[in-house]
Amino acid sequence: MRLPAVLFATALLTAAPSWAQAPGAPPPSVGVVKVQPTPITETAEFVGRVQATDRVAITARVTAFLDERLFTEGTEVNQGDLLYRLERAPFETAVAQQEGTVADVSARLVNANIQLNRAQQLLGTPAGHRSTVDDAQANQRSIAAQLAVAQAQAQQARINLGYTEIRAPIAGKISRGAITAGNVVSPGSGALASIVSQDPMYVQFPVASRVLTELQKRYADKGGTAAVQVLLRLPDGSMFGQPGVIDYVDPTVAPGTDTILVRARIANPALRAPEPGKPIDRPLVDGAFVGVRVAGTQPVTVLGIPRVAVLSDQQGEYVYVLGDGNKAEQRRIKLGQSTPAIAVIASGLNEGETVIAEGIQRVRPNSVVNPAPITPSLATKP
Q1: In terms of Cα–Cα distance, which of 315, 76, 85, 50 is closest to 201?
Q2: CA–CA gap between residue 181 and residue 177 (Å, rounded)
Q3: Which of 64, 164, 195, 289 has its CA 20 to 30 A from that of 242?
Q4: CA 267 to chain centre
Q5: Which of 166, 163, 155 has the alpha carbon at shortest distance from 71?
Q6: Within a 10 A sphere around the Cβ of 75, how many other Cβ atoms?
Q7: CA–CA distance from 323 to each of 52, 287, 331, 373 (Å)?
Q8: What angle do CA 236, 240, 242 make, to 5 degrees?
Q9: Could you read off the pLDDT of 80-123 as tens digits, one per residue?
């Protein structure tokens, strides 16, 4: 009859937690660290979208036949490169015609000036008449006005002739052509192609107004948001090697999300040496989503402890503080803007207190521990 009781006692011992300390066993050894001012480089993560700094739709300025397309689709063009050539003959004829009109009116103006001078010279003689001078002066001014109109029309004809050569207004990657050679194009035909600038690029990302205000205050004496560095995480998870700088902050808070749109400018160099007539691959593509990491360029001093010392449950974060008699006391804390390795203490701990950072799995509230200095490598381990 005593055997079931023995088995029940044995089952209770077997079911006891693995961390339970056996009677008479020495206190568990733990690594401890002091709460002290720590220099850190603060970071914050956001989601952003890449945007080209310049974007142009190429359109025809005159109505004419499209003679040639002079670029390779998908390649990069330089500012001023000739992209399209339209039919020139009608516009060259218009220029010649307007220049002829200018020559004709110029000749008539010369004659009008002669007539006016002659009438003015005869005005003091019996053959002279004031009415003759007035008529000659009016005729001279009328022809001068006609010459100004003719010169303006000739200039407009030359401008229209120049529009038969469509050149790239900016440097960047050009899209496919929307209209092929042989078609008639006009200002109403829509875009023939578009050019998107490639280097540098913008990255736009929304930031909570509270976070932005904290950044501006923290770096106010170092240049504000211009003092932080922007790093990107590409869609494949790798970090982009070029740092960026914030160059614009939207003046309005989005009412639905309480965020402010921030824009950074970042270089976008080619992945390999460019080859003539071939596309150039660059890491950042217009419209792509990227991860945005905002980091301070200079460390700031905060009250910090190793991140591994912080535990969390449904009530929030807490740590074990070494109390009197080497007892582990559970303490609730609030964290500030932290890093993967350093936890910034906003409240709950004071400078000089000792927290347990190593061997925490062997610690229970109000249990006695055997403290020793933390392993140095653990202090900076994410």
Answers
A1: 50
A2: 10
A3: 195
A4: 10
A5: 166
A6: 15
A7: 58, 55, 11, 15
A8: 165
A9: 999 999 999 999 999 999 999 999 999 999 988 888 887 777 77
Contact criterion met (CB below 8 Å) for 193 and 172: no
More confident residue, 274 or 268: 268
| Reported pTM | 0.66
CA distances from 291 to 14, 156, 162, 232, 238 (A): 49, 51, 45, 6, 10
> What gap in Å lies between CA 214 and CA 216, rounded to an integer?
5
Q: What SS3 class is residue 283?
A: coil
Question: Is the previous residue joined to 187 through a cis bond, with omega within 30 degrees of 0?
Answer: no
Question: Could you give the domains of the chain?
Answer: 27-47+219-245+279-382 (2.40.420.20), 55-79+168-196 (2.40.50.100), 89-162 (1.10.287)
3 state SS of 95: helix
Query: What is residue 183's DSSP assignment?
Result: S
CA distance 263 to 320: 42
Contacts of 134 (CB under 8 A, 6+ apart): none
